[in-house]
Amino acid sequence: MLMPSIFGENLLDDFFDFDYPRRALRTPSASANGLMKTDIKEKKDLYELHINLPGVKKEDIQAELKDGYLTISATHGASNDEKDEDGTYIRRERYFGTASRSFYVGEDVTQEDIKAKYTDGVLKVRIPKVDPKKPEVEEKKFIAIEG
Protein backbone atom coordinates (compact mmCIF):
# COMPACT_ATOMS: atom_id res chain seq x y z
CA MET A 1 0.00 0.00 0.00
CA LEU A 2 1.33 3.41 -0.93
CA MET A 3 1.23 6.10 1.68
CA PRO A 4 1.03 9.81 0.90
CA SER A 5 4.36 11.56 0.90
CA ILE A 6 5.52 15.13 1.17
CA PHE A 7 8.80 16.10 -0.51
CA GLY A 8 9.62 12.45 -1.28
CA GLU A 9 9.44 11.13 2.28
CA ASN A 10 6.78 8.86 3.68
CA LEU A 11 4.87 10.51 6.52
CA LEU A 12 5.03 7.37 8.67
CA ASP A 13 8.73 6.62 8.13
CA ASP A 14 9.78 8.63 11.17
CA PHE A 15 7.06 7.14 13.31
CA PHE A 16 7.86 3.53 12.51
CA ASP A 17 11.59 4.16 11.87
CA PHE A 18 11.55 2.44 8.43
CA ASP A 19 14.35 4.65 7.15
CA TYR A 20 16.96 3.15 9.48
CA PRO A 21 19.90 3.23 7.02
CA ARG A 22 19.38 6.96 6.40
CA ARG A 23 18.81 7.71 10.09
CA ALA A 24 22.10 6.05 11.06
CA LEU A 25 23.90 8.85 9.21
CA ARG A 26 22.13 11.58 11.15
CA THR A 27 22.19 10.24 14.68
CA PRO A 28 21.55 13.04 17.16
CA SER A 29 24.57 14.19 19.09
CA ALA A 30 24.81 15.92 22.43
CA SER A 31 25.18 19.35 20.86
CA ALA A 32 22.23 18.73 18.51
CA ASN A 33 20.03 18.23 21.56
CA GLY A 34 21.18 21.41 23.25
CA LEU A 35 23.41 19.60 25.73
CA MET A 36 26.78 21.25 26.40
CA LYS A 37 26.16 24.31 24.22
CA THR A 38 28.36 27.00 25.73
CA ASP A 39 28.48 30.79 25.86
CA ILE A 40 31.81 32.33 26.88
CA LYS A 41 31.87 35.90 28.14
CA GLU A 42 35.06 37.86 28.70
CA LYS A 43 35.03 40.34 31.54
CA LYS A 44 37.73 42.63 32.86
CA ASP A 45 39.38 40.10 35.18
CA LEU A 46 37.70 36.77 34.37
CA TYR A 47 36.02 34.53 31.81
CA GLU A 48 32.49 33.31 32.44
CA LEU A 49 31.16 30.12 30.83
CA HIS A 50 27.44 29.32 30.64
CA ILE A 51 27.01 25.65 29.70
CA ASN A 52 23.57 24.20 28.88
CA LEU A 53 22.93 20.95 30.75
CA PRO A 54 19.13 20.59 30.66
CA GLY A 55 17.74 17.73 32.71
CA VAL A 56 21.13 16.79 34.19
CA LYS A 57 21.40 16.40 37.96
CA LYS A 58 24.16 18.28 39.78
CA GLU A 59 25.70 15.03 41.02
CA ASP A 60 26.06 13.82 37.40
CA ILE A 61 28.36 16.72 36.46
CA GLN A 62 32.13 16.56 36.87
CA ALA A 63 34.73 19.25 36.32
CA GLU A 64 38.42 18.39 36.11
CA LEU A 65 41.47 20.60 35.63
CA LYS A 66 44.50 18.83 34.15
CA ASP A 67 47.49 20.19 32.24
CA GLY A 68 45.81 23.56 31.72
CA TYR A 69 42.58 22.07 30.32
CA LEU A 70 39.25 22.34 32.11
CA THR A 71 37.07 19.35 31.16
CA ILE A 72 33.35 19.39 31.98
CA SER A 73 31.60 15.99 31.77
CA ALA A 74 27.91 15.26 32.24
CA THR A 75 25.94 12.02 32.32
CA HIS A 76 22.28 12.24 31.44
CA GLY A 77 19.79 9.41 32.06
CA ALA A 78 22.19 6.52 31.71
CA SER A 79 19.38 4.02 31.10
CA ASN A 80 20.10 1.76 28.14
CA ASP A 81 17.08 -0.44 28.70
CA GLU A 82 14.69 -0.27 25.75
CA LYS A 83 11.84 -1.80 27.75
CA ASP A 84 10.14 -0.79 30.96
CA GLU A 85 7.23 -2.12 32.97
CA ASP A 86 4.71 -0.43 30.67
CA GLY A 87 6.09 -1.76 27.35
CA THR A 88 8.70 -1.30 24.66
CA TYR A 89 9.74 2.06 23.27
CA ILE A 90 8.98 2.57 19.58
CA ARG A 91 10.99 5.79 19.36
CA ARG A 92 13.28 7.66 21.75
CA GLU A 93 14.24 11.25 20.99
CA ARG A 94 15.52 12.32 24.39
CA TYR A 95 19.29 12.21 24.80
CA PHE A 96 20.72 9.54 27.07
CA GLY A 97 24.46 9.23 27.53
CA THR A 98 27.61 11.12 28.41
CA ALA A 99 28.97 14.32 26.92
CA SER A 100 32.07 16.36 27.68
CA ARG A 101 33.79 19.56 26.59
CA SER A 102 37.32 20.76 27.21
CA PHE A 103 38.53 24.34 27.43
CA TYR A 104 42.15 25.49 27.60
CA VAL A 105 42.43 27.83 30.59
CA GLY A 106 46.21 27.97 30.95
CA GLU A 107 48.79 26.15 33.00
CA ASP A 108 48.80 28.84 35.71
CA VAL A 109 45.13 28.52 36.70
CA THR A 110 44.62 26.32 39.75
CA GLN A 111 41.64 24.28 40.82
CA GLU A 112 40.98 26.68 43.70
CA ASP A 113 40.75 29.63 41.27
CA ILE A 114 37.78 28.19 39.35
CA LYS A 115 34.26 28.65 40.74
CA ALA A 116 31.20 26.80 39.42
CA LYS A 117 27.48 26.99 40.17
CA TYR A 118 24.64 24.90 38.69
CA THR A 119 21.11 26.32 38.58
CA ASP A 120 18.12 25.79 36.28
CA GLY A 121 19.98 23.51 33.85
CA VAL A 122 22.87 25.93 33.31
CA LEU A 123 26.37 25.43 34.70
CA LYS A 124 28.08 28.78 35.30
CA VAL A 125 31.86 28.60 35.56
CA ARG A 126 34.05 31.58 36.47
CA ILE A 127 37.72 31.38 35.51
CA PRO A 128 40.01 34.26 36.54
CA LYS A 129 42.43 35.74 34.06
CA VAL A 130 45.90 34.84 35.26
CA ASP A 131 49.09 36.30 33.91
CA PRO A 132 51.41 33.50 32.86
CA LYS A 133 54.42 33.13 35.08
CA LYS A 134 57.63 34.05 33.40
CA PRO A 135 60.12 31.20 33.45
CA GLU A 136 63.06 31.93 35.65
CA VAL A 137 66.06 32.53 33.47
CA GLU A 138 69.13 31.02 35.00
CA GLU A 139 72.13 33.32 34.83
CA LYS A 140 74.98 31.67 33.02
CA LYS A 141 78.20 31.52 34.95
CA PHE A 142 81.35 31.05 32.99
CA ILE A 143 84.63 29.73 34.25
CA ALA A 144 87.64 31.71 33.19
CA ILE A 145 90.09 29.68 31.20
CA GLU A 146 93.73 30.67 31.60
CA GLY A 147 96.12 30.08 28.82
Task: Summarize the structure in short.
With 147 residues, the chain is mostly beta strands.
Describe the protein in words:
With 147 residues, the chain is mainly beta. Helix content is 6%, strand content 37%. It has two helices and eleven strands, in the order ββααβββββββββ. It has helices at residues 13-16, 20-24; strands at 5-6, 9-10, 38-42, 46-52, 61-66, 69-76, 83-84, 87-88, 97-104, 115-119, 122-128. It has a four-stranded antiparallel sheet with strand order 3-4-11-10, with no helix packed on it. The protein has a three-stranded antiparallel sheet with strand order 5-6-9, with no helix packed on it. Strand 5 (61-66) and strand 6 form a beta hairpin. The chain is elongated and about 95 Å long. 10% of the residues are buried.
Extended strand count = 11
Distance between the termini: 105 Å
Which percent band covers the strand fraction? 35-45%
SSE order = EEHHEEEEEEEEE
Helix fraction bin: under 10%
Side by side, the strands of the main sheet go: 3-4-11-10
- Alpha-carbon Rg, integer: 25 Å
* Low-confidence regions: 1-30
- Structural class computed from helices and strand pairing: mainly beta
- How large is the count of helical segments? 2
Mean pLDDT: 75
What keywords describe this structure?
6% helix; 11 strands; mainly beta; single chain
Task: Give the helix/strand layout.
Blueprint: E1 5-6, E2 9-10, H1 13-16, H2 20-24, E3 38-42, E4 46-52, E5 61-66, E6 69-76, E7 83-84, E8 87-88, E9 97-104, E10 115-119, E11 122-128
Antiparallel strand pairs: 1-2, 3-4, 4-11, 5-6, 6-9, 7-8, 10-11
